[in-house]
Design a protein that fits this description.
The longest helix is centred in the middle third of the chain and has 35 residues, at about 30-65. It is built from four helices and no strands. It is about 70% helix and about 0% strand. The protein is flat, with a radius of gyration of 26 Å. With about 100 residues, it is mostly helical.
Length: about 100
Amino acid sequence: MSTKKPFKLGLVPKLLIGLALGLVIGLVVPEVVIRVLVTFSGAFSTYLGFIIPLMIVSFVTAGIAHLSAGGAGRIFGGNGNDCLSFHFGGGYPSLHH
């Protein structure tokens, strides 16, 4: 008995099929439905634009928290005073340690 692999479509064919379906649906569906979909699309895009940076910061923070006690200090190059002196020193790195 031979087993057949399931047929898989690549990304580009899926995009082209989706584009064609969207075009056909856009020509057939009433304008009211299209306006609702466009509104949802805009709201979802705004939501993603807000939430993705928060997810990135949380994953980086969690990764740093899982480091050993000495590991996190090596990432930031000291005890934090360097960051403060860089900020309050007008953007120039500090010369003292």
